Amino acid sequence: MVKWCVITRGFYVSERNWIVVKDIRSAVRYYTDVVGLQLVEFNEEYGWAELEGSDGGSRLGIAQENELEKVKAGQNAVITFSVDDLEASKKKMMHQGAKCEGDVIEIPGHVKMQTLIDPDGNCFQICELLHHSCCHC
User: Fold this and answer.
1) Separation of alpha carbons 137 and 130, rounded Å
2) Which helix (H) or strand (E) covers residue 24, if one does?
3) pLDDT per residue as tens digits for the range 70-105
4) CATH second-level architecture of 4-129?
5) Against a cut of 0.85, is the pTM above it?
6) How far apart are CA 97 and CA 106, in angstroms?
7) pLDDT of 17-55, one tens digit each?
8) Every domain of the chain and the residues it spans
9) Which residues pair with 5 in a beta bridge?
10) What span, in angstroms and rounded, lies between the C-alpha atoms of 17 and 100?
11) Of 18, 24, 54, 123, which residue is the least packed, with the fewest Cβ within 10 Å?
12) Among 114, 125, 128, 108, which residue's Cα sits nearest to residue 17?
């Protein structure tokens, strides 16, 4: 079941985002071993996997690059994963081979963000909310 979040009247955001990768098996290993997501669905025949965080929530879809899809690996939107402790998460992910893009960006009193790059060149962010009155991250 796909859940939807109403942003404004007539505009909805799915709680599932997806990226395209060159090697779906390697990508699943990366997002489970390095990022810490859990695999909830994998269909190699159709080149599709879905992962989610330990508490559920939004799912990340991973699609195998193919000749029918115009979007290629590394040409995707930036996805964001909320973490409780940005520095600890960053350190653990870097120890497991993650590559950072730039420095931590902090908006004092609101959020800390770090952009990383997966092996296919897809950017993603880890984000620590410094207060919990907003659900954008």
Assistant:
1) 11
2) helix 24-29
3) 778 888 777 888 888 999 999 999 998 899 988 998
4) Roll (3.10)
5) no
6) 23
7) 889 999 999 999 999 999 999 999 999 988 999 999 988
8) 4-129
9) 13
10) 21
11) 54
12) 125
